[in-house]
Amino acid sequence: MSLQVRGVNELRRMFLKYFEDNGHLRMKSFSLVPHNDNSLLLINSGMAPLKPYFTGQEIPPCRRVTTCQKCIRTGDIENVGKTARHGTFFEMLGNFSFGDYFKHEAIPYAWNFLTETVGLDADRLYPSVYVDDQESFDIWVNEMHIAPERIFKFGKEDNFWEHGEGPCGPCTEIYYDRGEKYGCGKPGCTVGCECDRYVEVWNVVFSQFDNDGHGHYSDLAQKNIDTGMGLERLAMVVQDEESIYTVDTNRALLEDVCRLADIKYHDDKDKDISLRIVTDHTKSCTFMISDGIMPSNEGRGYVLRRLLRRAVRHGRKLGITHNFMTDMAKNVIANNKDGYPELAEKEAMILKVLAEEEEKFNKTIDAGMEILTEMTERAKSEGKNELDSTDAFKLYDTYGFPFDLTEEILEEKGMTVDRAGFDACMKEQKEKARKARKHSNYMGADATVYDEIDPHITSEFTGYDKLTDTGKILVLTTEDEITEALTDGQKGTVITDKTPFYATMGGQLGDSGMIINDGGAFRVEETIHLKGGRLGHVGQMVSGMLKTGDTVELNADAKQRLNTARNHSATHLLQKALRTVLGSHVEQAGSYVDKDRLRFDFTHFQAMTPEEIAEVEKLVNEKIAEDLPVETKIMTLDEAKKSGAMALFGEKYGDTVRVVKMGDFSTELCGGTHVGHTGVIQAIKILGESGIAAGVRRIEALTADGLMKYYRHEEDELHSAAKLMKTSPAELSDKLQVVLDEVKKLRSENEKLKAQAANASVGDALSGAEEVNGVKVLALKADASDANALRNLGDTLKEKLGEAVVVLAAVCDGKVSLIATATDGAVKKGAMAGNIIRECAPLVGGKGGGRPNMAQAGGTDAAGIEAALEKARELAKTQLAG
């Protein structure tokens, strides 16, 4: 039976339908941007986006799944183009089982699809198994009836999949014999040869073991199947093409490049390299942009920029002088939209991004190439074969020439470049930029990415009476540049034509929430005011992609808005209550409200008394209980002032203002959000009052949910304390008083015992005193709990000795205490306690001094106590003898 030639799109449909017919759920390709997976920049295999199902982090929608996953791999980008085997973009066909079927089903599925559905000649197919996987070998022999000599056994390096610790297992692969014309001609050429004759078309991983990371394997409770088959490689076999570059969809691209360059494939080896690079990279760029990846200098954005600029340079090498990427992208879209309809849906964005990036690079490439040529010629004239790192950095920093491009061009010239030196230059530049980050724009403010936004763009706030609205995305930014799209995991800002999100202003913290459509979800962490009447939703993409021009649903967090409104309305009641209790001199000096608390600053010239605080709190709670209606009106500033509305001192207002009125109690100018009636606030509790500046006081308070949370915490603390005291909360005060009385009594007894112990420790020490010139000299180590006890002991010894010089040392809490004390009579005869301590203290690792009759020191070296006491004894005797 002759093999029917089938195109890439048809093979994709056949594979997915085959597994659908065998009970698998067909899932569309996941985005190239990994979701919640920081281990990858880009999806590089069919299994990668399904990892949560394999690890058990998520429950799969079906235990049998089939996909055709778009993938990007750039690990061997330097080989792309040089050989016809390597490419950055590919599609991976896969069938997966999450604890459902295993080897007895997976092997027949693979064989039957290739032989019966696709029609490959069974005599040209050769399975391979892991050398120790006898079960798979037996299935191939006994169930699939493959002759044992046609089955190849390979070791761990080829047929066992593992990635450190975790699930792993053996593989079985199916190779196809493409015929002698693709072989190396060597006598031993067979499966496993490095030539292009025997091509692996199917690989099934039997995930059945768990590796503990130390080479010990145990059986997994749930055994899984992970199948991978490259679609382009299958098409290469079916279409009997020499490489993945000449299968139907890629050939159309390759021929397009040949047409643009007016050359033929295989006429020139060097030009063939450039043809393959342009073909592959254009396809990768088109798919990456369709998934919202934008050119940048970091992460996956840099991968895109590098691929795009590499394609443009090789286009130039082929003689294509005009911009060509958009024409090529149209070809990619036309030939691949069958399997990836998002390409057609995102065509306008794809073409715009490619056109802008190609134009931007074309402005730098000529100047960069000219400078690089001068640099290489200079280096060669100096006998160097390596470009200096400072030159490479100058190309990057001044001319926007990517280092990778410099490296590649130098390789073509047989030269190298100092990579480590370049990295050091980059690090130094980033450090300088970090230190100088607070540069200003022409208005004197810190320059930001928002300065680049079209000044005609504005936003309308619609959230006074609703929390959900539909808007159109006008601008998207990353943290440092305006972009056409944001993708999974990226941080940035979304600006829409209208929004229900309140932006931080007037002391009220802005809303958080979600911005969503069918393509993606963005978590808003903060909403901010930008110049020109724009409102920015700052946050992070949590899934999918959003792009400029998208219609989105904006949902502000209802719970956050309600609690923030409660706290804001409470500040209005609080200001009026303060004016009522303290006087009309009270003016608002600032405020802050969020979902958890409120803070109100006001003019007042002394601390509030507890009675005043209680009166203010009582008045506010009365107005909350009265459930006053909260009304808002728009009026002129003059009308507002005539209505008695309170304005914030020093604030500038427009011709029309928003007035918030709470019954007949409070009327203020305010642009914030509020409750509909005061009863919604529930209650207020003032936590504290303090001074923050001359003539300015601050009140901090809680309402509603924040207040209940506070009371719960206080209650928990009360119960914990009662539990420690082995009593009930109601009897805790009485129990504490009993304990305090006991503690006081025990302390008194303890002091007496310490004094007794210190006196007892002296023992017969008095008899050891020496008399010099009618004065007793005593130096000894004592037991004392602290320096105070040691001083008391010294006084006791003086009383017992009469005229005396007493030097004592003790170790208290691990540190040495040293004191010297002398009676008045001893001082008259020459005793100097201060001098004694000053000279002895260094021997215990300390220093000290004092008066002639009393001195002390502290030290750290207890081992020096005896030496210090001996020296003190000799010094005292010397002083008295003189």
Explain how this protein is built.
The chain is 39% helix and 25% strand. Mean pLDDT is 89; it is low at 436-445.
Report low-confidence residues grouped into runs of 5 or more.
436-445
**What structural class should be given to the helix and strand makeup?**
alpha+beta
Instruction: Give the C-alpha Rg.
Output: 42 Å
Distance between the termini: 128 Å
Into which percent range does the helicity of residues fall?
25-40%
Supply the number of helical segments: 24
Q: Overall mean pLDDT score? A: 89
Largest sheet: 9 strands, mixed
Approximately what portion of the residues adopt beta-strand conformation? 25-35%
The global form is extended
Annotation, overall tally of beta strands: 34
Topology summary:
Blueprint: H1 8-21, E1 25-26, H2 51-55, E2 64-72, E3 89-98, H3 103-118, E4 125-130, H4 134-143, E5 152-154, H5 156-159, E6 160-161, E7 166-177, E8 198-211, E9 217-230, H6 231-238, H7 248-261, H8 269-290, H9 299-317, H10 325-336, H11 342-345, H12 347-381, E10 386-387, H13 389-399, H14 403-412, E11 416-417, H15 419-435, E12 460-461, E13 468-477, E14 482-483, E15 485-487, E16 491-496, E17 498-499, E18 513-517, E19 520-530, E20 534-547, E21 551-556, H16 558-582, E22 588-593, E23 598-603, H17 610-625, E24 630-636, H18 637-642, E25 656-662, E26 666-669, E27 684-693, E28 696-703, H19 704-724, H20 732-762, E29 770-772, E30 775-781, H21 787-801, E31 804-812, E32 815-822, H22 824-828, H23 833-840, E33 847-850, E34 854-859, H24 865-881
Parallel strand pairs: 1-2, 4-5, 10-11, 12-17, 30-31
Antiparallel strand pairs: 2-3, 3-9, 4-7, 6-7, 7-8, 8-9, 13-14, 13-16, 13-21, 15-20, 16-20, 18-19, 18-21, 19-20, 22-23, 23-28, 24-25, 25-26, 27-28, 29-30, 31-32, 32-34, 33-34
Helix pairs in contact: 1-3, 3-4, 7-8, 7-10, 8-9, 8-10, 8-12, 9-12, 10-12, 12-13, 13-15, 16-17, 20-21, 23-24
